[in-house]
Amino acid sequence: MQNQRKQIVAGNWKMHKTFEEGLELAGQIVSGFEGDKGVEVVLAPPFIHQKAVGELLAGVEGMSLAGQNCHQEAFGAYTGEVSAEMLRSVGARYVILGHSERRQYFGEDDELLRAKVDRALEAGLDIIFCCGESLEVREGGDFLSFVTGQVEAALFHLEESSMARVVLAYEPIWAIGTGRTASPEQAQEMHAHLRKKLGERYGVAFAERQTILYGGSCKPTNAKELFSQPDVDGGLIGGASLVAEDFLSICRSF
Ligand code: PGA
Fold first, then answer.
1. 40, 99, 101, 133: which is the annotated catalytic residue?
2. Ligand 1, residues at Cβ distance < 6 Å
3. Is the pLDDT of residue 244 over 90?
4. Is 171 a catalytic residue?
5. What CATH code would you report for 2-251?
6. Which of 18, 49, 71, 173 has the lowest tally of Cβ within 10 angstroms?
7. Index of the ligand 1 atom closest to the CA of residue 241
8. What pLDDT shows up at residue 3?
9. How far apart are the CA of 126 and the centre of ligand 1, in A?
10. Where are the domains of the chain?
11. What values do phi and psi take at 131, rounded to 5?
């Protein structure tokens, strides 16, 4: 039975594709996109590509644009940074925040993420918020509370109307770019736990409406099984989002 949640597949291109390559990829995805399936397809290209990819997606119902990051201030003397307002001004609907690569390589902690979350929402962006544990935490056994702790710390200060604009993405670090995906059961266990915590904070009916994505070595060969789990509402795709056919095949995996 279909639940009432929105299904989303988002492609996180990370630092891949020149401008021309990016436009080509986005063009291929747009032409292969089957808009009538009720799945929202999101592309998150690098900043440089945002405006042009945004223009390609503009008339396409069911597709939207996302930034991969934004600064926590609205504007100012922050050389090299890009604001949520700027993303919004070129048509982005979402911004990805809390990705483990941002946490690990750029020192983004809960406090900074909370500030980014507030800024992005204020600028009118919805959020794809990533959470996930390292292999060490997984093997230590305390992974459920570790991951819900990340979500609570950066998001649970939000009121319900703001939290409704946040899509969670569970991305176990040990599965990102490693080819080692979480099993459908492992993904389901975490997603159900996240939904339970959402329910405790915002009410069960609210939690039932919230989309929770899985990310980490999701590909055409495993997407169907992952997406068939009752609490997995789609995916945040890295490597496999760089090949149009693979990405489109994942989008058709519900
Ligand atoms: P991957 O990346 O699909 O290449 O594992 C997922 C992500 O980091 O969002």
1. 99
2. 12, 171, 176-177, 215-218, 236-240
3. yes
4. yes
5. 3.20.20.70
6. 18
7. 3
8. 74
9. 20
10. 2-251
11. -145, 160
